[in-house]
Amino acid sequence: MARKDLLDISSLTDEELMALLDNTVQMKDIFTRSVKKVPTLRGRTVLMLFYENSTRTSTSFEIAAKRLSADVTNFDIGSSSVKKGESIRETIETLEAMRCEYVVVRHPMAGFAKTLASMTGMSVINAGDGRHAHPTQALLDAHTVREAMNVTDLKGKRILIAGDIIHSRVARSTSTIFTRLGAEVAFMGPGSLLPKSEPFPQFTNYEDAMAWGPDVMYLLRVQMERQTAPLYPSNGEYHKLYGVTTERLREISDKGIFLMHPGPFNRGVEISDAAVCYERSLINTQVENGVAARMSVLYALKPEVASFHA
Amino acid sequence: MATVANEEEIQEALERIAEQLKPIVAGQTTAFIGLKSIGDVVAERLVTLLAEDDTATLLLGALDASLYRDDLSRFTTSPSLQGTEIDFDLDDAHVILVDDVLFTGRTVRAALDALTDYGRPKQIELAVLVDRGHRELPIQPNYVGISLETSREDNIKVSLGYGNEVESIELNAE
What we know:
By secondary structure, chain A is of the alpha/beta class. Chain A has two domains: 14-133 and 290-309, Rossmann fold, CATH 3.40.50.1370; 135-288, Rossmann fold. Chain A is 40% helix and 14% strand. Chain A is built from twelve helices and nine strands. In chain A, the strands form two sheets. Chain A has a five-stranded parallel beta sheet. Chain A has a four-stranded parallel beta sheet with strand order 2-1-3-4, with helices on both faces. In chain A, helix 6 (169-180) links the parallel strand 5 and strand 6 (184-188). Chain B has a single domain (2-171), classed as Rossmann fold. In chain B, 25% of the residues lie in helices and 28% in strands. Chain B has three helices and eight strands. In chain B, strand 7 and strand 8 form a beta hairpin. In chain B, helix 1 (7-25) crosses helix 2. Chain B is globular, with a radius of gyration of 16 Å. Chain B starts with a strand and ends with a strand. Classes of the chains: A alpha/beta, B alpha/beta.
């Protein structure tokens, strides 16, 4: 069946999930050619609708769309009619009149992408909706681990996600995809930042988490801006308790553990300078793979608008 | 269902193509690029048949032209990408593009566009195991193993390589 939208990981079938990941490998191949572009989406338009700023994600989507030869337009919502009280229905009508086929949307409200998708034939790609989901981040993370370990599924692998779990849509989407691929996931962080009920082991102590034997340590950004009241004492304290300090990096390196982070990171909070350039840090690879994963998503989706089938 | 060719007849068809190619590859460097999937198997077989000529330098590559197709919006699901492996320089190369079945010509059109993104070959020729007619574009093969009269609705199934134990070409197999 044709899929119009990518809203979250859970709604993908196993077959779709594997196809998205397998095609990511081939998309990345294009980067190594002298012509880093294919004509797949020539004449199509991708619209970036970001109600929340995110230069990294929007740039990654923009490069992905351009490498597939699509045209990309930023709908600068911050300074547009939303502030003048335009409804979502009116916004959609405006976008449809511009004959776009794909909309990449980020919004602070969970479920916004789904609402948008139900109101339009354009393909909607969720680039983050509140604390709900960030499926392209999950895809790029899964691809990065598959690539680094040279495996197709993650059976028997242990992935420790550390940090601000409850505020993080990355933790939600990424733990979902790792589990789907057969990995075991655990969370680590201050009790105040861990969810009340999760099917995963949870650690509030760094040593216990390391004793669990992770193959990958996935650090989340401590999201200071999302907290109204502080949920942990201080950045220095967080670093001491849960951060990858220079001392802890030695143990991580000895055990051959991979380090990941969705960026942007807070140096000296969840990660030390030394850890950023650690040989098994996959942080920069994640950025590169983000473009390939988003190309794979754009390639897979089938808009239901007249201009696509013309 | 009808069998168009069995294993032996496929081999004969490949040998017919190889026979025509012998004078072309002698004393030259020729790049065989098979179109995925199955065209890559045909290309490999042709190279094996031609390898006995010591004066011929034969290069082998494989191309997936899916990202260059002009009919992707007609697919319910986009084709899974098989990857391209061309680890030699295409500039000024003599290329023999190889596919299993030539039908509308749209895959070959896509492949020609894809090849230009890898380099500027001196010459590109086309070899196909089966030509079943019904072109939608002005594309003709230079070397053909089997010419087959078909109706547009017919379905051709080539079982070759990719773990197929019994090799065959079948018409309207179900």
